[in-house]
Amino acid sequence: MAKDFGIGASSKRREDKRFLTGTGRYTDDMNKPGQAYVHFLRSDMASGRINGIDIAAAEAAPGVIKVFTSRDFEAVGGVPCGWQVTDRHGEPMKEPKHPVLAEGFVRHVGDPIAAVVAETRAQARDAAELIEVDLEELPAVVNLRAAVSGGTAVHPEAPDNLCYDWDFPAESKDAVDEAIRNAHHVTVLELVNNRLVANPMEPRAAIGEYDAADDQHTLWTTSQNPHVIRLLMGAFVLGIPEHKLRVVAPDVGGGFGSKIYHYAEEAFVTLAAKVLNRPVKWTSDRGEAFMSDAHGRDHVCKVELAMDAEGHFLALRSTTLANMGAYLSTFAPCIPTWLHGTLLAGNYKTPLIFTNVRAVFTNTVPVDAYRGAGRPEATYLIERTVDKAAREMGIDPAELRRRNFITQFPYQTPVAVEYDSGDYNATLDKVLEGSDRAGFEARKAESASRGKLRGYGLAHYIEACGIAPSSLVGALGARAGLYEAATVRVNPTGSISVFTGSHSHGQGHETTFAQVVADMLGVPEDSIDIVHGDTNRVPFGMGTYGSRSLAVGGSAIVKSVDKIVAKAKKIAAHLLEAAESDITFENGQFSVQGTDKSLAWGEVCLAAYVPHKYPIETLEPGLEETSFYDPANFTYPSGAYACEVEVDPETGKVEVLSFTAADDFGNVVNPMIVEGQVHGGLAQGLGQALMEGCVYDENGQLITASFMDYAMPLAKDLPSFTVDNSACTPCTHNPLGVKGCGEAGAIGSPPALVNAVLDALSDYGIAHIDMPLTPSKVWAAIDAARPAAAAE
Amino acid sequence: MPGIKLTVNGKTVEKTVEGRTLLVQLLREELGLTGTHVGCDTSQCGACLVHVNGESVKSCTMLAAAAEGAEITTIEGVSSRDGTLNVVQAAFQEHHGLQCGFCTPGMVMSITDLLRVNASPSETEVREWLEGNICRCTGYHNIVKAALSAAETLRGAQPVAAE
């Protein structure tokens, strides 16, 4: 029976009320007394030399306070990168400076050249048009393959445009080569993982404030991790110590990865507020977002899968070109390496795996994590290749998967990670049943009677979430620890304030985290408040990404609640004049075992703050605990997805008829919220597979820079989804047994959809079409595959 | 600069604005009604949707001066002061039709308008109606469910139970 309280209950979200009544507080909703506005003049060229900037006319324009150029930032650092990858020769990656405002050269369309601060937004924008930039256009590097073929360099320190050339695991190369040479069959697939723009509905915004009396800086920003911004901007860009810098991320309208990173605009408003001694506000418009938010994916891959005669996987080899864009964004280098190479076993016991990844600079917007981050790229290449292999080997795709599934846990993969739990056959069974695989042939025949091609596609996924054990990621190049912190403050009357370093920007932490605490303490959810997003209120935090909030942040809360209960038991034992070991705590009551003596939660809390009768010699008053939780391992959510499509061979249009998901997220705290996370992930994954694609022309002009050109999935493009998370194998190494659910939908759905479309087109012998599967691409593939006679 | 007079959420408003001021700027920046959001600059996303004389309008497509004499209703205008949710808002909460909340005011205003013109929409009709509102979080699944549930409630039937 469904619970109506605590862990396992679909509690309605407490944050909804403010969002539904228009009283949410997003960064752009705030205005500070005396606030000025900044407008950035951005490069309209992909590559160019700045021979001069004339700001005189702009500075004289109405309302203008100051025009900034890179000269105003000579004393500050560049925007830093948070992860250093070491290449196959043992050399550190190339890490060119990423200046706050362009220094001498522009390297992508959207690179900020100058910034106008004025009394109003309109005046700043108007004055920016008066800045004369003598910009000499240089040849641009756009195409990934061309970028590594010699010629033009984006940065002089990387003449071949390589950030790094990475082998993993280096020692497996020869054995993999040999296994592929000697195999019964090798399935080969070349594919592109298309470039995407995260496009949270709230564009980025930032307000810098400075209090000269106390030398205090405040940055209000649209961030998924305010403490990380404080660290990166304070320590590396502006040189402001933590105690003089407050970063607040209030209500944030979606992130999907794009709001993890420290951006130049944040450093700009923080510094400009001090220079001008007044608040400075920036709000991105959507066009600006397309050319300044970090993009996602953009891989070009070749995959080879070696099999024996029965279809057992013997070896997998992949080579990937990964686009970094013009500068290294915060986490960019680790996405195609440690979040991609380590997932190449997928759900399968392939004994030998080797990958080579070359990260490439181009004259495009920086590329970094987007929902899934490396894991969608790994899943897509594996699951497309497995499907192609099934076709080539004449084995049913579900059967081929089953034949190769990992079934024993823990399982040490050949790519460094150890899966703790999972049941891949269980999710496959559920998805085959939930999608009525058995009835597919009849449905296909019905479609055929209407001239339509029906297809059924499967995909499995595994992801490494709950990021991440600090010692491990440190060894892999991370420049920070990836634990999480939480303070649980029990107030004198028994109400509870939880301060978490996780950040909620749609995930519903205010509800879910309260459920966890309520369940542990047996107190009402509404007596618990969740505080997040402010470095002055929350002691520390690493933020929200990589489906880590509940698995890592939630675990830190659990640790603090455990400490609270332990201390409260001591207080209760003293008050009840019993041995501490005889005290039990259940449903908010402290009782002496075997007696009718008990105290309510609130009585013990009050005693902690009014310690009249209290073991004061051995116990401090108060009831507040802080914990840091550093995970022992990643978590490994997994699942099976099935997609059914209908293709119109006359137009190439793909209609998604149904989508069925069976996920294993371990234990689930709020099923309603988890299902919502899956729905959203599926929409983004189906968007990638069907319609989304960021396009640059050969000169590096960004062709898709608005919602008119970049196709965002609309309600009419998607079906209702069938989701299930009952195939649950709890995580074995965190206290809640949870795995994380935020990214799964975006990871597993693209290959399921593409596999379904290719199944629909199987009679045409079409082996592959690159995403997005727009009508024109699908139609062109059908047209090219038609026998010449039939086409006439 | 033109002087304008209009009614916003039942109150008469008189302002002098620059000619280029958009209705959404008037609402957010002059009147402090920040529940209406700006999610794009090409009138695609619908986060700025309000009712002008009772009908859905994207307030980023309309000059404030063009709203002279109009009756404007924003998300704040359909919300009660004590925070009690109306039928459409309550259906969004019941069915988890929002996550980050940024597109939500536009969605609520849009669905409210849909149910005014079509008391019994089908799922397909809801999905097609929403072609001017983008949500990046929910995949629309629960927004559609909320809209159908609100329609049923408004017709006086029992609401659809949450799954």
From TrEMBL, chain A:
The keyword Oxidoreductase is annotated on this UniProt entry: yes
A Pfam family reported for this protein in Swiss-Prot or TrEMBL: MoCoBD_1
Keywords: Molybdenum, Oxidoreductase
GO MF annotation terms: iron ion binding; oxidoreductase activity
Residues covered by the Aldehyde oxidase/xanthine dehydrogenase a/b hammerhead domain: 21-139
Organism superkingdom: Bacteria
InterPro entries for the chain: Ald_Oxase/Xan_DH_a/b, Ald_Oxase/Xan_DH_a/b_sf, Ald_Oxase/xanthine_DH-like, AldOxase/xan_DH_MoCoBD1, AldOxase/xan_DH_MoCoBD2, AldOxase/xan_DH_Mopterin-bd_sf
Protein name: Xanthine dehydrogenase, molybdenum binding subunit apoprotein
Organism in which the protein naturally occurs: Albimonas donghaensis
Automatic annotation (TrEMBL), chain B:
SUPFAM superfamilies attached to this UniProt entry: 2Fe-2S ferredoxin-like, CO dehydrogenase ISP C-domain like
Domain 2Fe-2S ferredoxin-type: 2-78
Molecular-function annotations in GO: 2 iron, 2 sulfur cluster binding; metal ion binding; oxidoreductase activity
Protein's UniProt name: Carbon-monoxide dehydrogenase small subunit
PANTHER family: OXIDOREDUCTASE WITH IRON-SULFUR SUBUNIT
Sorted UniProt keywords: 2Fe-2S, Iron, Iron-sulfur, Metal-binding, Oxidoreductase
PROSITE patterns to which the protein is assigned, alphabetical: 2FE2S_FER_2
Organism: Albimonas donghaensis
InterPro entries: 2Fe-2S-bd, 2Fe-2S-bd_dom_sf, 2Fe-2S_ferredoxin-like_sf, 2Fe-2S_ferredoxin-type, Beta-grasp_dom_sf, Diverse_Oxidoreductases
